[in-house]
Specification:
By secondary structure, this protein is of the alpha/beta class. Helices cover 42% and strands 18% of the residues. It comes from Streptomyces salyersiae.
């Protein structure tokens, strides 16, 4: 069993917390764009109040531990590991609650190359606990806006985790999809489930637009977020995201495995 102290050490050693690879410049740019309500950083969230760039910086300092000094404009961002650990406890509590009531759950990621394995372990454990891990709209085409304009992607699932792929790609089960911040995939999944009269999730677990898009629609949502993803933390502050866990979302995939084991142990869902 991984202790809290051992996980704290791992967070720092793997640079999931402490000084992280995400730069201060990237964070401040995202806060500025969020204040301007740029859809690229809103991730499907429609904030209830006006958030200035300074407001977002203060919130991120409170939720993540980044510096609240607007004059600090360069270098690596810093995440307080104690905040990460506290958020993981809350994350585990939500998983435990879903398991206890055997709630239907949807997993989705915009970071499949990094986070797919983390979510897959959780999906397997919740399935074993009696939860329906939902997989609606497999194969549906979704138009997603990116830096090179709008492109069509295909919804797919790997080990119970939703992602988007390049159209026409027939990848092996272990292969992953493309990186996206868009909320359109989760909207398409929920729309297809409702249209077909299938079960809707009571909990969505993921990142980026999967969390904010679901939370904006009133579905309980929990997920992981980096310091340049303020939308999840604003959503949490405004009550539409239940838990946002601050950590670097771009380290090698194997570094998230201890987090999955820790969360399942805290939720009493160890496989």
């Amino acid at each position: 069993m991984l202790s809290t102290g051992a996980l704290r050490a791992h967070l720092l050693a793997a640079r999931l917390a402490g000084p992280v690879a995400t730069t201060r410049e990237a964070g401040l740019r995202s806060y500025r764009l969020f204040a301007a309500r740029d859809p690229r950083v809103l991730l499907g969230l429609d904030p209830e109040r006006a958030w200035s760039e300074r407001d977002v910086l203060r919130l991120m300092a409170d939720r993540c531990g980044v510096s609240d000094d607007p004059g600090e404009v360069s270098g690596p961002d810093v995440i307080d590991p104690e905040r990460t650990l506290a958020a993981l406890e809350a994350f585990a509590d939500r998983l435990a609650g879903a398991a206890a009531r055997r709630a239907p759950v949807l997993f989705g990621t915009g970071h499949p190359h990094r986070l797919l394995g983390f979510y897959a372990v959780l999906a397997d454990a919740l399935s074993a606990a009696g939860c329906a891990v939902l997989t609606p709209a497999r194969g549906r085409c979704v138009d997603v806006a990116g830096r090179f304009g709008v492109r069509a992607y295909t919804l797919d699932y790997v080990e119970g985790v939703a992602l988007v792929r390049e159209p026409g790609v027939r990848s092996p089960e272990s292969a992953t999809g493309v990186h996206t911040h868009s909320p359109l995939p989760v909207r398409a999944v929920l729309d297809e489930a409702a249209r077909a009269g299938e079960a809707l999730p009571e909990l969505v677990v993921g990142d980026h637009g999967w969390v904010c898009g679901a939370g904006q629609l009133g579905i309980e949502a929990i997920g992981l977020a980096d310091t340049d993803d303020p939308a999840l933390f604003v959503g949490e502050a405004e009550g539409r995201v239940s838990v946002a866990v601050p950590l670097d979302d771009g380290v090698p995939a194997e570094h998230y495995r201890p987090l999955a084991r820790y969360v399942l142990n805290r939720a009493r869902l160890s496989r």
